[in-house]
Amino acid sequence: MRRLILLLGLCAAVVLPAAAQETELFAGYSYLRLNNGTGVNLNGWNAAVEKELVGWFGIVADLSGHYGSPSGVSVNTLQALFGPRLKVDAGLIEPFVHVLFGAARGSAGVFGSTSSDVALGIAVGGGLDIGLGPVAWRAVQVDYLRTELFGATQNNTRVASGIVLRF
């Protein structure tokens, strides 16, 4: 009987933290200040999936795309970044920080001729989610986004806001 109680206690200790795990889906608007020597403003989208491993720590897959045509040059960027996220659940508000690594793709085209490059992308930043239950608002997410496209380093700023679904 004692072994059965110990076994049930061990199962509960393993299952209860797993039940607390949460998945978050984020989708929203994103602004990118592309610092390529001249400073270009691009608009686009940001989407992410986070799998919470414990209450304060999760793994994130973050995708974003930004587009614009400054001075008649078509500029597009795509980022696929992955990494850890730390967060604090303070009830109605949930601040977080993350460090993400992955690939960045940039392309520029003028008069039908396009050039593109793929390189390392790194994002360091954080944000603030507001809301309880299954739906929240990502009031702000701000990232320093470093890319190394076309043989040059870009030190960019990315700002996003949108809806978070939790399940």
Give the CA-based shape.
elongated
Count helical runs.
Answer: 1
**Based on helices, strands and strand pairing, what is the structural class?**
mainly beta
The fraction of residues in strands falls at over 45%
- The CATH topology is Porin
Can you tell me the CATH architecture? Beta Barrel
Distance, first to last CA: 37 Å
Q: Sheet bearing the most strands, described?
A: 8 strands, antiparallel, barrel
Low-pLDDT residue spans: 10-19
What's the number of domains? 1
CATH class: Mainly Beta
Mean pLDDT: 89
Number of strands: 8
Share of helix among residues?
10-25%
Write down the secondary-structure element order: HEEEEEEEE
**CA-atom Rg in angstroms:** 20 Å
- In spatial order, strands of the major sheet run 1-2-3-4-5-6-7-8
Question: Which terms would index this structure?
Answer:
mainly beta; 167 residues; eight-stranded antiparallel beta barrel
Molecular structure report:
This protein is mainly β and 167 residues long. It has a single domain, classed as Porin, CATH 2.40.160. Helix content is 11%, strand content 69%. It is built from one helix and eight strands; from the N terminus they run H-E-E-E-E-E-E-E-E. It has one helix spanning 2-20, and strands spanning 23-34, 40-54, 57-68, 74-87, 93-110, 113-130, 135-147, 154-166. It has an eight-stranded antiparallel beta barrel. It is elongated and about 50 Å long. The relative contact order is 0.18. The model is unreliable at 10-19 (pLDDT under 50).
